[in-house]
Amino acid sequence: MSDTEAGDPDRLVLSTRFALAAGFGGLLAIMALAGVYSMRVLQQIQRNENEIRRQFLLKDHALNDIRSQLYLSGTYVRDYLLESEPGRAEAYLVYRFSEIYLVR
């Protein structure tokens, strides 16, 4: 046998190993890029979720204020209607509504 024929199996083994290493390295690179992309997408989702939560809390706070003021005004009207003396009822009404408008 000649020298070129004896070197062919070694060259085939080396090229196979190189192909396997390159394929595995390429697969690892693709996985790393997919991981980086997933982290970016996750960060974007978290930013959107934080903005949605902030808007929800602002609106919820406004609704709670409205609910509280509505309950309070209902209490004032009830007390006004239940007052037996008209003079005291009128004074009570003026006092309570002036209190509301001076605070706000």
Overall number of structural domains = 1
* Count of strand segments: 0
Fraction of residues in H or I helices: over 70%
Q: Label the structural class.
A: mainly alpha
Order of helices and strands: HH
Query: How would you describe the oligomerization state of the chains in this entry?
Result: single chain
Strand content: under 5%
Largest sheet, if any?
none
Low-confidence runs: none
Number of helices: 2
| Rg from Cα | 39 Å
Query: Which shape, going by the Cα principal axes?
Result: rod-shaped
**N-end to C-end Cα span:** 104 Å
Mean pLDDT: 86
Descriptive notes:
- The chain has helices at residues 3-82, 86-103.
- The protein contains two helices and no strands.
- The protein has 104 residues and is mostly helical.
- The protein has one domain (3-103).
- The model has no long low-confidence stretch (mean pLDDT 86).
In short:
By secondary structure, this protein is mostly helical.
